[in-house]
Design goal:
There is one protein chain. This protein has helices at 2-21, 26-62, 64-75. The chain is mostly helical. It has a domain at 25-67. The termini are far apart.
């Protein structure tokens, strides 16, 4: 009878060891959950950036004012009759 109890105790310890340290263990599940949380945070940042880009594309496709503003700031566009002044800061 004592041998049966010892065998059962050993089996319980082995099953517990696999639960805490083996493949599919709690530690591995926690690690994977952390990776999932990090990926979801990165996805949320990218989704916000995509929304900004979609809004910018919609703005550019709807009106000429947005395109003109872009051309003025990025390309230095000047209309006929306008005078362009370049102010340079001295170092």
């Amino acid at each position: 009878m004592k041998a049966l109890w010892i065998i059962m105790a050993v089996l319980i310890v082995l099953l517990q060891a696999r639960l805490w340290a083996g493949e599919g263990s709690y530690a591995q599940v926690w690690q994977i959950q952390d990776q999932i949380d990090q990926q979801q945070a990165a996805n949320a940042k990218l989704a916000a950036r995509n929304e900004e880009l979609f809004a910018e594309v919609a703005n550019l496709s709807d009106g000429k004012r947005a395109i003109e503003e872009r051309a003025r700031t990025n390309l230095g566009m000047v209309r006929d009759g306008e005078t362009f002044f370049l102010v340079v800061d001295s170092p």
